[in-house]
């Protein structure tokens, strides 16, 4: 039985392991949408608060929701591009309306997800993850240059700062292991910000103005608005997250030596759906199971849920302290960009790693990967090609993640499922052979 002090310490370790991912997402979205420092601070506080609530829902669980394994929920990077695209073409209220509806979809679709999985085999998942990473690379490079539209965009000091941050992250990954390596991005952000401070590029004015305590309020950015295209986009994002979370559940089952049944997966996905709805209500983000915390469970050998309850409680407390949330807004764009290069590059690498498990010598798999990645990247790189189309169609097709995902799913149905049916129909029955 662990003491309260140890539970808090080990819980803090899990918070630190996922903190970079939890903080970077609101920073990226807030920066891309030109939100004010106060609005970005709210996004971070709301995200940390909802991460904590979502984690507690999953770990403690109820009769119908919650995987009841030592899992931490955090905002999914898959949603970054779509949220920016939706909010840029309409507004944040539309993005949050789509998040709420997509969360309800996850709750209702959880029992059916086993049937949906056949439309998302490894080749489709790998292609989609690769597309997500590639579509985010321009965001990283814009930030590395200082932020699109900024007066010092592309200045040597911004480029050197981004390069230095990336070098620190790579150094930590090369010469350290275990927990230090797990928080290499966070350490890179801290070190890069310290260097930027010495260069006179950091101001703490926003931290001084932020309050010490504040309660996260529902619908901070206005009453949710609903768009069919935005809703479909977020549902696609969450279907991918459901597949990722299912993998995390089974991985946790192996680490904790717990048999994970289909009912457990359904309860876990229902809990995730409830967390996504909460994310929309509190103007946070869609949530998914964080795989880095699975590695930490394996590394420490501490498999008790008490530690995750401690981590969830700490996240809730952090979300109620805007001054601490505002502290992260002092990170310069260039520092953030250097970290993004590593993080988004890892997303691409993860997609490639998934595809490496696929037999690309089969022409069908090769065509699915090639065409979906090409269409997705092309749509994101040349969005003007759809300017002559109706507004709703244009919004859908200009999102490279959506076009790439749809291409992968449709090609999988046409090339793989149809081909199987044709082959099965071509096999002569024993009766016909005998006659």
UniProtKB/TrEMBL annotation:
Looking at the record's lineage, which domain of life comes first? Bacteria
Membrane topology category: Multi-pass membrane protein
Keyword Transcription regulation set for record: no
What keywords tag this UniProt record? Cell membrane, Membrane, Transmembrane, Transmembrane helix, Transport
Which Gene Ontology terms of cellular component type are present?
Answer: plasma membrane
InterPro entries attached to this UniProt entry: NCS2 (IPR006043), UacT-like (IPR017588), Xan_ur_permease (IPR006042)
Q: Where in the cell is it found?
A: Cell membrane
**Pfam families found in the cross-reference section:** Xan_ur_permease
GO terms of molecular function: xanthine transmembrane transporter activity
Q: Where are the transmembrane segments?
A: 12-33, 39-60, 67-87, 93-112, 119-139, 159-176, 183-208, 228-252, 307-328, 334-354, 366-384, 396-416
The UniProt similarity line reads:
Belongs to the nucleobase:cation symporter-2 (NCS2) (TC 2.A.40) family.
Q: What is this protein called?
A: Purine permease
């Amino acid at each position: 039985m662990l003491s309260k002090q140890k539970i808090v310490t080990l819980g803090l370790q899990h918070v630190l392991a996922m903190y970079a991912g939890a903080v970077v997402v609101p920073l990226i979205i807030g920066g891309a949408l030109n939100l004010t420092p106060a609005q970005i601070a709210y996004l971070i506080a709301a995200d940390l608060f909802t991460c904590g609530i979502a984690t507690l829902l999953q770990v403690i669980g109820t009769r119908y929701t919650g995987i009841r394994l030592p899992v931490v929920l955090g905002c999914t990077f898959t949603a970054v591009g779509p949220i920016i695209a939706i909010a840029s073409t309409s507004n944040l209220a539309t993005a949050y309306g789509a998040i709420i509806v997509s969360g309800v979809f996850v709750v209702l679709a959880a029992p059916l997800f086993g049937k949906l999985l056949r439309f998302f085999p490894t080749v489709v998942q790998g292609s989609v993850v690769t597309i997500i990473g590639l579509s985010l690379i321009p965001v990283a490079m814009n930030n590395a240059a200082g932020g699109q539209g900024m007066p010092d965009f592309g200045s040597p000091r911004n480029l050197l700062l981004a390069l230095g941050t990336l070098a620190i992250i790579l150094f930590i990954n090369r010469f350290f292991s275990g927990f230090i390596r797990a928080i290499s991005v966070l350490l890179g952000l801290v070190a890069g910000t310290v260097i930027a401070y010495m260069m006179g590029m950091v101001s703490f004015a926003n931290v001084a103005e932020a309050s010490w305590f504040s309660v996260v309020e529902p619908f901070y950015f206005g009453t949710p608005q609903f768009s069919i295209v935005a809703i479909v986009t977020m549902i696609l994002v969450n279907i991918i997250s459901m597949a990722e979370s299912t993998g995390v559940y089974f991985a946790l089952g192996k680490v904790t030596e717990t048999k994970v049944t289909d009912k457990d997966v359904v309860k876990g996905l229902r809990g995730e759906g409830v967390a996504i709805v909460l994310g929309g209500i509190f103007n946070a983000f869609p949530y998914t199971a964080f795989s880095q915390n699975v590695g930490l469970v394996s590394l420490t050998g501490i498999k008790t849920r008490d530690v995750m309850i401690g981590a969830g409680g700490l996240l809730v407390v952090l979300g109620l302290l805007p001054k601490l949330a505002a502290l992260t807004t002092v990170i310069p764009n260039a520092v953030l960009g250097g970290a993004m290069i590593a993080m988004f590059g890892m997303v691409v690498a993860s997609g490639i790693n998934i595809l490496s498990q696929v037999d690309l010598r089969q022409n069908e798999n090769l065509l699915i990967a090639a065409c979906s990645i090409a269409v997705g990247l092309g749509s994101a790189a040349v969005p003007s090609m759809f300017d002559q189309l109706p507004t709703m169609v244009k919004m859908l097709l200009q999102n490279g993640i959506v076009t790439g995902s749809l291409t992968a799913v449709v090609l999988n149905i046409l090339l793989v499922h149809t081909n199987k049916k044709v082959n099965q129909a071509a096999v002569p029955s024993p009766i016909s052979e005998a006659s």
